[in-house]
Design a protein that fits this description.
Blueprint (H helix, E strand, L loop, with lengths): L6 H14 L4 E5 L2 H6 L9 E7 L1 H17 L4 E3 L12 H4 L1 E6 L2 E5 L2 H11 L2 H12 L5 H18 L5 H21 L1
Parallel strand pairs: 1-5, 2-3
Antiparallel strand pairs: 1-2, 4-5
Length: 185
């Protein structure tokens, strides 16, 4: 079993990636990796990423990722909120730039997309992550509601696997948790 990922290990991974990959790329930190990097959570089990790279450099990028996984003893997983939910309009513009590592521009995947994918999954830890983003000011409940309303019609029609009633219940539960937290603070 590989050791958990903390902010320093994520940062070192990004530095090494920038040193090893010599072509332009756009890398997104996803989910728990963003929370760890932003100090909203102590650690994660893996580094979740999504990326964009020119087709002719894709195989090399994957080779570098595999090399770093072994060399640094990290779990690196390809993941995107878009694997679980339709992405809300404007998601790419809301991606927050983290920095440039060599020729690799690193961003946090849109936090509203991240929050909605966590709400869709609906585990206790997912709700806690979304509440931490709300409390930390990384996202606002009003904009989260707008993003939710944006994806809901597509959520209902784009996949038989997705249950629109479940995400509606989960979103209502998150709103109640946020209201409870607001009243106790």
């Amino acid at each position: 079993m590989r050791p958990p990922i903390d902010r320093l290990r994520v940062h070192y991974f990004l530095v090494k990636l920038g040193m090893e990959f010599h072509h332009p790329a756009r890398l997104y930190l996803v989910g728990g990796t963003t929370l760890v990097y932003e100090g909203l959570r102590e650690q994660s089990l893996d580094i979740d990423i999504s990326y964009e790279v020119a087709d002719e450099h894709d195989a090399e990028f994957v080779r570098v990722l595999r090399k770093l996984k072994e060399e640094l003893q990290l779990n690196v997983e390809l993941a995107s909120p878009g694997d679980f939910i339709p992405l809300p309009a404007g998601w790419k513009e809301r991606a927050k730039h983290v920095g440039r590592f060599g020729l690799v521009d690193v961003f946090h995947f849109d936090l509203y997309s991240t929050a909605l994918s966590k709400i869709e999954r609906g585990r206790e830890g997912d709700f806690q992550d979304v509440l931490a983003m709300l409390q930390g000011g990384q996202i606002s409940l009003e904009e989260l509601k707008a993003a939710f309303q944006n994806i809901l019609p597509r959520f209902e029609r784009e996949s038989l696997k997705r249950d629109p009633e479940r995400i509606k219940r989960n979103f209502a539960l998150l709103e109640q948790m946020a209201a409870d937290l607001h009243h106790t603070s």
